[in-house]
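Quick one, C-alpha cells below. Sequence please?
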C-alpha cells in the first residue's frame, strides 16, 4: 500500500539549487495537484452536478502526471494544455465535496463610492417620511440636535458591530455575521436574541410597508377617480340610492377596504420560491428617494419658509423649540439609522478594507444630511399661518392633497417600489424562520403559506385599526434598537476587552451608558 503513494519516477542527481528551485516552483498554481473526487460529490452552489466526460478525462490525465514524479520536481509536470482553464477549476475538499471557483476576489469588490451609496440606499427607508413629524414632536432646534446626536451614537455602535469579528483571536471569522459573534460570546442565548430582534425589525418593516401601501394606493385611487370620473355623467344607484361618489368612498376606504385589497396583490408574491426577480428592482428605491428630495425642494421653493422661534412655550401656529415629546423622534431615528444587522455583509465587498471605517462614517454623514434636508425643509416650509406646525402628519405626504400631481407621482413611485421590496423582506423572514425550524428556507408550500398568512394578517390588522405610521416606526425602532444597536454591540465589545485583559472603567461607564440610553429610548415610547 505504501508503494502506491510513491511516484513512478524520481529525480536523481539534482543539487541544492535545483531542489530550491523546485520548492519555489511548487508554489506556482500550475504545480498544484488536485486529487480525485467522486462525480456525485461535485457541487456548485446548492445544485448537484455530474462531472462531464471531458472533466473525467482531464482528471485522469492530471492524476497520471502527478504519479510520475514528486510534487517538488518539475521534470514531468503537467503541460499547459492539460491544466484546466481558470473558469473550470474546482476547489476540492477532503470532506468529499468541491465548489467551483467564480473568479478572483478583486473582480467582485466595489470602490469606496459604490460602498458608500450602497449603505445610503439601504438605510433610506420609510423613516424618511416621518422625520419632519419627529422634528415637530421634539421641537425644531432640539430636533436637529437630537438627529445629529443619535446619528453619532448609532454610527459608533455600527462601528463596534463592524469590528466585532476581528476582535476574536485564533478563529477564522472572515465569513461570520453579527449573530455568529453573539453566539461566540454569549452562546445560543446571544444568537437567538439577535435572531429574534432581527425578525422583529423585518416584520415591523413589513407592517409599516402594508400601512404605507394602503395609504399610497388609497390616495392614488382618489387622484385617478377625481381626474377621470365625471360624477355628473356616471351616477350609480345601489340599495340606498347613493351617488357614484358615495359608492366610491364606501368601497375605496383607507382603513376599511384597501388593506384587504392588497392581499390579492401581495400574498401570491410572498409565496415565490426565490426572491431574485424582485431584487432586480431595488434601483426603484434610489429613484424614489431622489424624487422625494426633488419634491421637498420644489415645495419649499413654492411655499417659502415659515419660522418663529419660541423656546419653551407654544403659540397658535408654532410649537416650542424644546418639547418633552422628543423620545418619539429618538425612536424614529433609531430605525432611520439602523443598518447594524447587515453592515458586515455590505463592507465585505469594499475593495479597500482599510477604508471601511472612513466609508462607513461618510455613509452615515450622507444619510444624516439627507434626513436633515428633508426634515428641516418640510418643517420650515409648512404654511404657518394659516396652519399650525402641530398639524404636520407622521407621513408628511399626507399634508398634501390627493389632487397634487407632484405628490401623486411620489406616491405612485413609492407604491411600486414597496411592492417589490415587500416580497424581499418576506423572503428574509422566511429564510430565518424556516432555516431555524426546518433547516431549509422552503420546506414546503403549506409551511411557507402559513407563515405568509400570519405576516399578512399582522399588516392588515395594523392598517385597519392602528394606521399611525409614526408610532409604528418609533416602537419598532426603539425595540430593535435596544438589542441590535445599543445592548449587543456594547456588551460584545466589553466582553472582548475583558477576555483580552484590556477592559477599563471609562469603557465600562461609556458602554453601560449606551445600554441605559437604549433602555430609556424604549421606555420613553410608552410614556409619551
Amino acid at each position: 500500500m505504501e508503494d502506491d503513494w510513491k511516484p513512478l519516477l524520481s529525480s536523481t542527481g539534482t543539487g541544492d539549487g535545483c531542489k530550491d528551485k523546485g520548492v519555489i516552483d511548487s508554489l506556482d498554481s500550475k504545480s498544484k495537484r488536485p486529487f480525485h473526487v467522486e462525480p456525485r460529490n461535485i457541487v456548485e452552489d446548492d445544485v448537484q452536478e455530474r462531472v462531464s466526460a471531458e472533466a473525467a478525462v482531464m482528471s485522469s490525465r492530471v492524476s497520471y502526471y502527478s504519479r510520475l514524479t514528486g510534487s517538488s520536481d518539475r521534470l514531468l509536470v503537467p503541460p499547459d494544455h492539460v491544466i484546466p482553464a481558470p473558469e473550470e477549476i474546482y476547489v476540492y475538499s477532503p470532506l468529499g465535496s468541491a465548489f467551483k471557483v467564480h473568479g478572483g476576489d478583486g473582480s467582485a469588490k466595489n470602490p469606496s463610492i459604490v460602498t458608500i451609496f450602497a449603505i445610503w440606499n439601504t438605510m433610506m427607508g420609510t423613516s424618511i417620511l416621518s422625520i419632519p413629524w419627529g422634528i415637530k414632536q421634539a421641537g425644531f432646534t432640539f430636533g436637529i440636535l437630537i438627529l445629529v446626536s443619535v446619528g453619532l451614537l448609532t454610527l459608533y455602535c455600527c462601528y463596534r458591530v463592524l469590528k466585532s469579528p476581528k476582535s476574536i483571536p485564533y478563529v477564522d471569522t472572515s465569513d461570520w455575521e453579527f449573530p455568529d459573534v453573539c453566539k461566540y460570546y454569549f452562546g445560543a442565548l446571544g444568537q437567538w436574541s439577535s435572531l429574534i430582534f432581527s425578525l422583529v425589525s423585518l416584520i415591523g418593516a413589513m407592517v409599516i410597508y402594508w400601512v404605507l401601501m394602503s395609504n399610497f394606493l388609497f390616495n392614488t385611487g382618489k387622484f385617478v377617480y377625481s381626474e377621470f370620473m365625471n360624477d355628473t355623467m356616471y351616477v350609480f344607484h345601489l340599495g340606498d340610492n347613493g351617488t357614484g361618489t358615495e359608492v366610491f368612498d364606501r368601497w375605496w376606504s383607507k382603513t376599511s377596504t384597501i388593506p384587504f385589497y392588497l392581499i390579492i396583490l401581495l400574498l401570491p408574491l410572498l409565496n415565490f420560491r426565490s426572491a431574485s426577480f424582485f431584487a432586480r428592482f431595488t434601483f426603484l428605491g434610489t429613484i424614489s428617494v431622489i424624487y422625494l428630495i426633488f419634491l421637498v425642494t420644489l415645495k419649499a421653493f413654492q411655499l417659502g419658509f415659515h419660522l418663529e422661534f419660541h423656546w419653551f412655550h407654544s403659540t397658535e401656529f408654532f410649537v416650542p423649540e424644546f418639547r418633552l415629546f422628543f423620545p418619539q423622534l429618538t425612536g424614529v431615528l433609531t430605525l432611520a439609522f439602523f443598518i447594524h444587522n447587515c453592515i458586515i455583509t455590505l463592507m465585505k465587498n469594499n475593495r479597500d478594507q482599510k477604508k471601511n471605517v472612513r466609508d462607513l462614517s461618510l455613509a452615515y454623514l450622507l444619510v444624516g444630511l439627507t434626513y436633515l434636508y428633508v426634515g428641516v425643509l418640510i418643517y420650515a416650509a409648512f404654511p404657518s399661518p394659516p396652519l399650525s406646525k402641530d398639524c404636520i402628519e407622521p407621513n408628511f405626504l399626507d399634508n398634501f392633497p390627493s389632487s397634487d400631481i407632484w405628490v401623486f407621482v411620489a406616491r405612485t413611485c413609492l407604491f411600486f417600489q414597496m411592492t417589490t421590496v415587500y416580497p424581499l423582506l418576506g423572503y428574509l423572514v422566511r429564510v430565518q424562520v424556516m432555516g431555524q425550524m426546518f433547516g431549509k428556507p422552503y420546506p414546503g408550500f403549506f409551511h411557507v403559506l402559513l407563515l405568509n398568512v400570519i405576516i399578512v394578517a399582522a399588516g392588515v390588522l395594523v392598517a385597519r385599526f392602528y394606521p399611525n405610521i409614526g408610532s409604528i416606526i418609533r416602537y419598532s425602532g426603539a425595540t430593535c434598537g435596544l438589542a441590535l444597536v445599543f445592548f449587543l454591540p456594547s456588551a460584545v465589545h466589553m466582553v472582548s476587552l475583558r477576555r483580552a485583559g484590556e477592559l477599563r472603567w471609562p469603557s465600562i461607564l461609556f458602554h453601560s451608558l449606551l445600554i441605559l440610553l437604549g433602555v430609556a429610548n424604549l421606555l420613553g415610547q410608552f410614556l409619551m
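The CA atoms of residues 317 and 385 lie 6 Å apart. The mean pLDDT is 80.
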